[in-house]
Every structure is written in C-alpha cells, then in structure tokens.
Design brief:
The chain is mainly α and 284 residues long. The chain has 2 domains: 225 residues, no CATH class; 54 residues.
Length: 284
Amino acid sequence: MKTLANPSQRFVAFLIDTIIIGFVTFLLSLLLLVVFRVKEPQFEKIDPHVKPVLVEMINNKLSPTGNSNLTTDINDEQVALYVYYLVDDETVKNTCARYDSDFSSMVINSVEDCRSYASASMKYTLTSSIVSFMSYLIIIVLYYDILGYYWSKQTVGRMLMKIKVESLEGEDPTMGTLVLRDLVGFGLYNILNICCFIAFIINVIYITRDHISVGDRLSSTRMVRYDEAALNQENGNEYSPYMSSHLYENNSRFNTNKEEIKDAEIVDDDSDDENNLNDSDDDE
C-alpha cells in the first residue's frame, strides 16, 4: 500500500522546484526583453545648479512647514521620481518667478526631463513585469506539466524527495489533469498575491500630486493632517489640555470651598449650642 507524501517532503520539493523555476524564468524574461528590444530608460545627469532648486520644490511639497530635510545628496533618479509625483506646474511657475529667464528655462527643462524619465521608467517597469509574469506561466506549464508528464509525473524536487502525483485511484494522471491541477493551484495562489499587491498599491501607495486615493476620488473625500492646538481652538477649546487643567483647578477650588463651608457650619452649630446653654443659665 502506498503512503501519502508528508507535508515536509512536499514543502522541500516545492522549494527546490521554485528555485529552478525562478532561475529559468529570469533567463527567459531577459531573452524576451532583448528580443522585443525593451530597454531600461537612461537618465541624464541633472545640472548641479538646478538640482538644489528641484530639491527645494520637493521639500516644500513634502512638508510645507519646512520639516522635510531632503538634500542634494539623493541621486538624480530619485529627484526625477519626486518631481514627477509631487511637483506641479504652479509650483514650477512660482519658483521660476524668482530667477531670470535663462535660469528659469533650465529649471523648466529639467522638470520636463524628470517627468519624461519617470514616465518611461514606469512603462518599462510595467512591461518587464508583464514579461516576467508571462515567462513564469510558460515555465510553470513546461516544467510541471509537459516535462513532468514525461518524467513519470515528477519534477526535480519530487524526484529528490521520491514523491510523485497520481490519481485517487492510484493511476497516472493525464496531461489535462496535470495542467488543471497546476493552473488551479499555482494560478489561484498567484492571482491572490497579485490582488493583494494591487489592493496595497491602491489603498496605501497612492503618491500622487494631490495625494488623493481611488477611494477618496469616488467618495469626494481626502485625508488631511491637523494641528491639535488649532483643532481645539476651532472646537471652542473643548477638550484642550488648557481647559482640562483649568477645569481641574476650578474643581479643586470648589472642593476646597465645600470643605471650608462644612467646617464653618460645624463651628456655627457649636456656637449655637453654647448660646442656648448660656440663655438657660440666665433664665434660672
């Protein structure tokens, strides 16, 4: 009677096969990028006189209060991405108004170069991601299904762990069964990963020029930062630290006054009792 493969054997086989698939997928992706002439964009060096101006605009956008501390030490590619996502035309216009026409033209040209590079870089990233994903699917089908079908329903990892795939009746599965098994298993796994990644991008990494997410656009809302002191003042100082201490101070005074009044009442009662006794003695 055949025994079922234990989870540790399957896990080790999965790791071995994943390493092999990852390496082959990487090689196939590079080959496809070369064949389709997809090249990573190159960015020309930013003029050292213009770079401080670009960094200043970025810092003003990151923190209008001046808390951002980006310096010119960051590389030009990072500056280009910051400019693309954060710096709008109005900011460029207001900044260039402080300089002469020649230097303003240099700043404007640098901003356009940054935006062009960032746009091309995103297109390259998207294209290479699609190529890598398609290469991965091709390798999955070739490695697990086609080669696995002719390798006694095994892969390299399964051979090393001495396990294989068979039907519930103990027979060898067909090619279609193997394809269905892997497409459903690996396909669903990767689809869930992609969905989680997309959800993360949409809900968290929405660094746009106006900092508005998809949900904010649909609901006509926005996320803002607030100053606690200003918010307390706007709400009539209702829960402000000053009001809390002030109320506590008044409450303490009120409690002190209550104790003084209570002591005074006790003293008055004693005085009344003494007066009544004196009156009784006089009457006698």
